[in-house]
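Hi team,

As requested, here is the filled-out complex form for the iron/sulfur cluster run. I kept the field names the same as last time so the parser does not choke. Let me know if anything looks off before we queue the next batch.

— J.
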Amino acid sequence: MNCFWCCNPEGISPKPALMYSVSKCILCGECAGKCEHHAINIEDGKLNISRSFCLSCEQQNCIDECYSGALRLSGYEISLPKLYGIIRRDRQYWGSEGGLTLTGGEPLLQLDFVKSLLQKCHEDYIHTAIETCGNIPWNNFQEVIPYLDWIFFDLKNSDSNLHLKATSADNKLILENAKRLSTEFPGRLIFRIPLIPGFNDSEENINSVISFLKDTGRKEINILPLHHLGREKYQMLQKSYTGGSHPVPVKESLETIRKMFNASGVDCYIGSETPF
Amino acid sequence: MRKDQDISVQTDDSLNYYGPIPGEGIAERELKKAPTPRAGKARQTYLEAKSSASVEFPYWYTRRWEELEGEVPVIRRAEALKTAFSHLTPGIMPGELLAMRKAGYLRGSFPLPWLSEAFFLSKEDDLYKEAQKAGKASADEVTTMGQGGGNVTKSIGNVISIAGKFGLRKEEMPILIKTAKRWFNKSVDDVGHKYEQLIPGYQTKEEIMRAVICMFDSGYTLPQGREVINYYYPLQFGIEGIKNICRENQDKSAGQPPMDRLYFYRAVIIMLEGLQKWIMNYAVEARFMASLEENETQKSEYLEIAERLDWLAVNRPRSFHDALQLTWIFHVAVLNEDAISGLSPGRLGQVLYPYWKEDIDKGVLSKERTIELLECMRVKFTEIDCFASMGVVGGVLSGNTFNNLCIGGLDKDGNSAANELEELILESAMSCDTPQPTLSLLFDEKLPEEFLLKGVECTKIGTGYPAWISNRVAMEFLLNNYGKEGMQTEEARAWAIGGCLETSPGSWMPLDLNGKRHYIPGGSAPATSVGVHFISLPKVLEAVLFNGIDKRTGRRVYPAHDSPLESYEEIWTAFKQYFSLTVEVLTLANNIQHDIWGKVTPSIVNSMLKPDCLDSGMDISHKGSRYNRTFNVEICGGVNLVNSLASVKKNVFDEKKISLKELRAAVEANFGYLSALETGSYSLTEQVKTGTFKDWMKIHKLCLDAPKYGNDDPYADNIFRDWQIWFSKMCENYRSLYDEPLYSCQISVSTHAPMGAVTLATPDGRLCGTTFADGSVSAYPGSDKNGPYALFNSATCYNHASSQNSQLNMKIHPSVVKGREGSRKFLEMIKAYLRRGGFHAQFNIVDSRMLKDAQKNPEKYRGLMVRVAGFTQYWVELGKQIQDEVIARTEYEQFG
Ligand code: SF4
Ligand code: SF4
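And here is what came back:
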């Protein structure tokens, strides 16, 4: 999926992307000279990266040549034991209150790795949670359910067409998975709405979420209001950010929505003001 | 695709993934409380006062000393002290509840020329030039002194600035010079210098001092301190009582071997007579002031002071107020006998608890009054100035006197020792937030949670205290070190911090009060941090890279090692050789200096207080105290050494990305930057590039990207551990003048600034002249990229009990610890570190933007305090180097 409001655009592609910081670049041109794919060129005092070439690159020579730190990758490969080492590093501190939350991108696209990681954590009594868009084969859920304590599940829009337009996927599979999880997942399943004014904050959409919650017997919802903190990262990826044209939700409308949920017996948490 | 290890240390931090970017305004610290009006006024008066020197004490001391030519030295010393004390002009301030101070002025102190007479003379003076020749003034020359607050750094009008910090009345200057010159060739410094030249390798020692590889000699600069005082004898026996003990012992020891005892007992009696006179002079002054006073309340307060002092000049204390006054008197008395920094009151709340509890139970004392008294005590402790040279006061101590007060810990039987009086001590430290006494909380799992949270509340207001110290680690260290002198577990519990951070042994002493026996803790060893003081590890490595030459001055420091340095092991071996040679010559030289100190100016006041000098009849320089394995080797810049070694290992040998020759050239070229001395800014983040920086950019990036300590990265951490294990073991190869092995100590106080100032760029990417990483296990500012827990893991990669006081400083943004929830989380974080085996952690809860603002507008921030290296100090009294370093220290904006 590819949602226009995404605040982690570097996670949309499954491959790590080259991130470029204009302010650090001294336009020395070293990177351009080293790129075998001729993906970088400097013109009129501006550096351009041709992303279509760049995506296929294995060596990333450009980064090694950039000594000012203007180029870096948005991600890297890590082995399971190493990652687990980082996770347990501050275990003493969070003790019985904390745990692991996997997020993305869509974590369940890396099923094998995620499954082994969740399994390891589960065995070692680390609380596990996952944030998912839901748009993945049911089997992927089935594989990890035994090792999961919590699932955060996005409901972006009840209107399948609007959903398709905004995220490049319809909501059919998502709703199916949501329903199945509510009967087959024994842990805590929390639905979430990334609230985008003008896209999914209509009364109609909220009402259909309410009835969906009724059908699935859920008593809580978490609203995540739109923010623009990811804007800078779009610049570094040299992508355009269309989410920027949507305003962030105002307090009153959030309150109205909260009241709507409360009236139908659903606890509504906004942002990070949650009991979890 | 790339693997994580290639890029796990990133230099990019334009994006903040570690949590919310703080909002626009400067975040204030929370929880401000106001002092009582009395203490508030006293504090204000203090803030307006300047460091002032006077010559009464040295004049009378010298005069009497000269009269007694030919007398037994310890008696001569006692008589000189007696005369000096009896002639000190009393200084009492309106509103004071605790009387007496070092000298007549509010921030008064005086030079002690019998220790060293050259450094406070003017730079033109011949004696000063002599000192310079011997490399003794090098530390002074590279130190910047705080320009604000009470420091008198320039002469103005009738006030002359001496030793870079103290103001002296112009008319007293000739007397001072005359007095000082009498000590020429007689002071500890001069006599010691005469004999230290006889040690093999003396030339190397002098070159080491000149290169500022070692910061200073301890024997004549600060021979005492870094220890815990013991108030037991005056409390239990009263001054007259102690004199009686001495008289009895004098009778028993006259003519009996060992012979020195007779003179010691005699000397204690003489000295105490001097103290009695001094105390009674204050009583007379108080009465005189009462006679002039029109305000009835003030008048009666003066009279109360007079009555109390008259009583205490002879007798045991009768009340909490008496006991507090008496402990203060002896604190000042010890401070006046020597140049001392780091004389800590120790676990004062436990020493005074029996008195306090009785008064509270009897209903003659309230908690409010207790707070008022404790606040007044804080102002008194803050007033203490230490007179020593600029390199020592500014460069090493940042003007701090380290009167560390400890709370918590365990009692004699192994239960929590925390008490209600200690809670009030915490409270008064919050309401009257002066730098002294700084607080340390001796953390043990047995301490009640409420008490710990009170400690957190205090740390949170941003005073930097209490520092958090692991009782378990300290006890392990003590039993390892002093077990050989007979220390048992029970007595190990009596320890406290002496000085900024030194784990100091203590004893439980039986105090009888109204038919009940209480065991109170107190210091039981002389200065715990004397010997080889502050070896600059990055500078030693620099000498290794340049075959024994100090590149800054071009002088040869060490004999050439002539190793081709073709492998990492060869570098490590050469480093060990140079370091060992340094420790060797400095141990020998310092042994002589300390021995001369014990011969020329033996301690009498402090000796009398320390168990078991009064039993053995020996002073502390003759192993009179219970524990004597107190000589150590102190280091500075350990983290920069480790990061540099990691960079050399990775870039030059493992991956062969650059040759050692190229690296050397880059280091000499300062990676194409101006040196910090040229820019006037000492933090890495604000350095200025020269035209050639592009030539060095590649090497600089490789150096910066090499594995860094503080990231839970075994590559760097293993080097750190190897160094620590080797260091702790090698110290035992050297013997102190007391014929005990040395031990390793991690303290660097604030030497990382002046020592950084004279060091070239280092292979870890640090630039020339910039300050080293502070503490001993703090990461280099900006190099710890994986959050506090990764830092904790790195910091505890070796056993902290294997050496004295490993030290971790962290800066935390106020928003992180906000509110009650913030307090609980903060405590959990502290506990996580201590449970993992960390010895010490301390925190600056401050927004770095506030500090930058304070650098620009010092007048707005006279009261702002920050934590430096084991101590809290007013921001404006810190040197620029240290200010820059505190600003640069990585600021945590979210835990985990
Ligand atoms: S990542 Fe590869 S293709 Fe892209 S700019 Fe760098 S070297 Fe060229
Ligand atoms: S190497 Fe780095 S600094 Fe140089 S032009 Fe490329 S991105 Fe800019």
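Two things worth flagging: The mean pLDDT of chain A is 89. Residues 203-216 of chain A form the longest helix (14 residues).

Thanks,
J.
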